Please model this.
Amino acid sequence: MISKEEIEKMIEVANKTEKFAYIFKSSHRFGAAVLTAKGEIFGGCNMDGVISSLGSCAEMVALHHALAHGNYDIKAVLVIDEKRYEFPCGSCLQLICQFQQSSQQKIEIISAKTNGEYLIKSLDELLPLGYYSTSFEEKLKSFKNYDD
Ligand SMILES: [Zn+2]
Model:
């Protein structure tokens, strides 16, 4: 279970990264943060693409950020918005599902507002019928965090 202190640190990181949003089509800035099993937090912001499919959600950028630092074991993903509770989109939930299959640990999803209020949901609540690969199950489980 994620602690209040961990959530507060994630909110701080998501608030910082939100301002880097690389947007020119959408008018909505998002910040996100990923907490790894090692207790590290990686931020992300959304980005638009001139070609729409090149854009990314803040959560996806944060997951890639954690991955690029050798983290496959994800404990929680947080998305932040100024005014209302937002949760990851279906694509992001499916990617989180893949990380859940790798780590075999339940991943919590936190929706936070910039004022510090938040809601916690499990991935299974938000994506109850997520796709878990049987073909790649063993390969997914073989990814372990790198130690620095
Ligand atoms: Zn998304």
User: Anything to note?
Assistant: The radius of gyration is 15 Å. The chain has one domain: 4-141. The longest strand covers residues 74-81.
